[in-house]
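Backbone-to-sequence.
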């Protein structure tokens, strides 16, 4: 399950007022777990050159409850190594260790990868009024 982050909400507010211009278009994978709303980066972002490093995702809006109320990111990664991916996040910067994380989540089940395996990951974040 993906969780929106506090830092992400701060940057959304800045973007809404014109104080920030970076959109969240990058997906990152990692090997850590246990993220929550107070985190600002993945527990252990993959930075190895193994095809599983931070990458630009296809971004769109889809409908969950209201028309277009959900942001959606999709990317297909192709591994060149053996690694188990356990977490993913959405960022507004291309470089690992940079930018603001909007959404984070642990993968369940995890994704054990070997060379030439592909992982297509879809992350969604619904924007709605608090009930």
């Amino acid at each position: 399950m993906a969780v929106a982050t506090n830092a992400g909400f701060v940057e959304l507010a800045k973007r809404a007022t014109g104080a920030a211009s970076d959109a969240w278009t990058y997906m990152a994978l990692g090997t850590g777990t246990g993220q929550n709303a107070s985190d600002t980066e993945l527990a252990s972002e993959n930075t190895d050159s193994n095809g599983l490093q931070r990458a630009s995702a296809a971004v769109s809006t889809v409908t969950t409850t209201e028309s277009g109320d959900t942001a959606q990111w999709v990317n297909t990664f192709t591994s060149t190594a053996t690694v188990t991916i356990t977490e993913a996040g959405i960022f507004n910067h291309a470089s690992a260790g940079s930018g603001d994380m909007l959404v984070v989540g642990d993968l369940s089940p995890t994704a054990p990868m070997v060379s030439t395996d592909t992982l297509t990951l879809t992350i969604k974040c619904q924007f709605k009024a608090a009930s």
